[in-house]
Amino acid sequence: MKPLTAATLHGTWSTLLLPLNESDNILWDGITHQLQALAEARVDGIYFNGTACEFYAQSNDEFLRLTHTTAEFCEGKGIPFQIGAAHAHASESLRRIEQTRALNPGAFQVILPEWAPLQWDEILRFLQQMIAAAAPIPLVIYNPPNAQKVLTPSEWKQIADSFDGIIGIKVAGGDAEWHEQMRPAAEKLSVFVAGIRLASGVITGCAKGSYSNLACLSPSGANRYGQLIREHPQKALEREAEILNVFGTALAPYREKVSNTALDKALAAAGGWTQLSPQPRWPLAGIPVSEVEKLATLFRKGLPFLFEEHPSDT
To answer: Domain range spanning residue 70?
Structure first.
């Protein structure tokens, strides 16, 4: 596909999650089912190998099969896609780019090396080599809230000014002050925030879209919500308050007890849009199926507009 730019990277992007059997093997039919479900949900793009897709727990052969399967599907359907090239080792992240660059994704997603907080010159050195390996395909930097180094708005501005090969960032987002501080960087970078905060991020901030989170629960619902943000912003802000309340209440018992991967997989299992075990790969713990069923009830009762085919939002 044609490389994405900061201007064309926007909207609701949904991730693949690893469907696993009891032996921790990937159920490849489950990947195909997810791709088909995401296409039917009409999300703006598909990506994989972030936290939710357990990039850190895949062999190279699994990574390559997942990448080729996704690229072939998305090219056939005309769906923009990004390849997550993140890895626990920087050299392996570089290799993932080199192995799959010929598949022509819209962008590669990378994270900063995580074994130690990087000094600023080390961050620049890492990004410079990753950009060179990916060119002419651009990079999106995934900087999760639990990262060793969480970049500040002023640091994002320095990165935006230093490199042409970076078009976007995937971050948790922040309050109104954070968005105001991010505006200079957002002139060059497409800022993606958590889906549950997308309305305020777009309407009163500088966000251009979202990855994971809300789309893990309901890809079609997240896509409709993105439409609502564009067409009825005030109604979308009201919905955001409901979303934050329900997510906060439903997930509070599990935060600090399980990983973000486990939370994302539980959301997808609760959403019921694909058959998926909520259990991450060993050694991570998951939320028990019985608890996921309770989550499904809470979300469907509290946020019915995410699951209705034709909700009344006007």
So the answer is: 11-232
